[in-house]
């Protein structure tokens, strides 16, 4: 309310703006010619110096509401305190209109007009405030309300308003349909729906409805708001068309009709469902062909399927490299192909694709096992073969590409070229990881045909190298004498060493041990305990381990080439004499060696001494009941008793000497104990232990 008092002076020009009360006033110069514009729904207020509202108003301004109490004073400067009139006028859009109440209280007179038609008439001079409420119906659209107040004499006060009646039993007028609708679809794939605010004074808000193309609007709104816009963040991204309308509703619950449909076509980012049934093609055995089938998808916008294959499962990567159907979708609900026989497990999945390129998640996985029948991509390039003193040496360049399962190159030797049938193949090397190999001793006097082939871990060969013919001459010249031979007597044998031979055809060394037989040296090679053949040495040292009992030996180390050519002692191989250390026990330092029922002693490097009985009784006829084992003690020069055993029910006996000294010769004696309590003579043996 803008209160005018006697103290206020009407300025020639007045501008009044009260934002919170929605007041905007403009006064022209001179009260008699006042021209004021007040923004609806603010009242335009005019003051008259009479009760007939005649002539030019003395003052005009804007008032946010009618609620004045002037008492017995004048309502404004230049006006009388009695016999004056005040008029409030407002013109506004009432929207759909409807039932309103006009509550008033006044002293003195008040009349209310709707579009010039009187609706309230309290027109008399009173000494107390009179009140009244009048119910009216305001039609839809724009209308003018005018409130005329007069004071004849005495105190003056007035209060009046116009209010919508919002009871559902009274108000049955629906709000007007909202206007000015607008719908946009933004880059975030959200719909922005807006409209113009309704004019109804009893408006409660708006209800937004959405429907899918081909369906009807439901009874439940998508959203309810008091705003004039709504952002729909729930739109599915499936390429469908959705329609929107908005309806206004008032405080009595009346709802307007819906606005004209506004539509939006959503972006399609909804992928089809993953195909089902692919995993049923799994096989538990080896396969050479894959046959997949699945239940066809039913999406209306389905374009087809993508089929993926990988040797890595869990899960199969949906990459272009793994996709088998290229850039175009596979249009059938089955797929067949021959499997690469690489030994890998192949994993297959299928996805569904729509016409906009949206791809589903992967189906279940079908597994297929294969045998490796595919050779490696590796190839020995620029291969050559040349004979020299070492044999036939092949060289080649490393393959430009390699397979994960490549294990090396195999060198093959043939007796005929590839063009001739019935040739014989000899594998002379395999697992070569480098780029050279020497065939040390191919049969001489013939032409051999060589080839190098890359091989994988399943034994499959790749593309062979060029074939290399070599006419092999061979040789019959032995390597030169080995130099620098030493022979040193040790407690557990003879330690040998020699200089390495630089003969290019060297294959191994052979060690001969010579003993005197009837005054002549007889040479025999050292024997391999496993093969029982002459031992082939590749190192330049060896311990000829044997009991140190003072014997004399003569050794010769001989170099042997790949063809077996070698010198002999008679043809120039050098020899080296050596006499063993003598670690035999002193005479009389223990049980005597003599006639005993104990059979031959035997044993090994693990310190085990074994024996059996040659006779069940001693020389006196008393039965054997047990055994005693003695070990020679070089420090005390006596045989220490190390074990006593009863005979029992077995037929052979043994003792393991865990305390046996290392790197020396140990002598043992075993005696038999007889039933009469006597001990027989001993059987003796010696063992040379490892260092």
Task: Name a few traits of the molecule.
691 residues; mainly beta; Jelly Rolls; Immunoglobulin-like; 6 domains; 6-stranded antiparallel sheet; 5-stranded antiparallel sheet; 0% helix; disordered N terminus
Secondary-structure topology with pairs:
Blueprint: E1 15-18, E2 23-26, E3 43-48, E4 59-63, E5 66-71, E6 84-93, E7 98-107, E8 109-114, E9 117-122, E10 130-138, E11 142-151, E12 156-160, E13 163-164, E14 179-185, E15 191-196, E16 203-212, E17 223-225, E18 229-232, E19 241-250, E20 262-265, E21 289-293, E22 302-310, E23 334-338, E24 345-354, E25 366-369, E26 381-388, E27 391-397, E28 406-414, E29 425-432, E30 436-439, E31 446-456, E32 468-472, E33 486-490, E34 493-497, E35 506-517, E36 520-525, E37 541-545, E38 552-561, E39 576-579, E40 602-603, E41 608-612, E42 624-633, E43 638-646, E44 652-656, E45 665-674, E46 679-688
Antiparallel strand pairs: 1-2, 3-4, 3-6, 5-12, 6-11, 7-10, 7-12, 7-13, 8-9, 8-11, 14-15, 15-18, 16-17, 16-19, 19-20, 21-23, 22-24, 24-25, 26-27, 27-30, 28-29, 28-31, 31-32, 33-34, 34-37, 35-36, 35-38, 38-39, 40-41, 41-44, 42-43, 42-45, 45-46
Keywords: Carbohydrate metabolism, Glycosidase, Hydrolase, Polysaccharide degradation, Signal
InterPro entries: FN3_dom, FN3_sf, Ig-like_fold, PA14/GLEYA, PA14_dom
Protein name: PA14 domain-containing protein
